[in-house]
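The instructor's notes for this session suggest beginning with a concrete chain rather than abstract definitions. Hand out the sequence below and ask the class to guess, before any prediction is shown, which regions might be ordered.
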Amino acid sequence: MKVTDIMTAQVETCTTETPIQEVAVQMVNLDVGSIPVTDNGKLAGIITDRDIVTRGVAAQVPFDAPVGQILSKNPVTGSPDMDVEEAAELMAANQIRRLPIVDGDQVVGIVSLGDIAVKDPSDQHAGEAIEEISKPSEQD
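After discussion, reveal the predicted structure:
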């Protein structure tokens, strides 16, 4: 099965200039924990609820500051032709819960661990990915 079979294709994005508070409200309204960030239509990064807390609130960045100041740059991405199992392995290896799917530089979808788990509850890839992602990071 390909990621295109399970991904969310109508992905809401924001730009690097979108204010942090506006992105937080967008996350609440969409009931999501991350939003891909674009710059001139190309993927520039991803902003997560955790980024807002750790890089924004904790660092006392003003809520009207552009999200480009706190986003996660160079996100791990997948391609539309990748298998679901490949996506799960990539997510596990990088300890991420959401994988933007890009075609060239354009965001065409996003896959979450939930998407993988729901497509086939008996598939062990989602469980294995969750287990890997949930492991504590090793200290430097």
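Then share the key points. The first strand starts at residue 14 and ends at 15. The mean pLDDT is 88.
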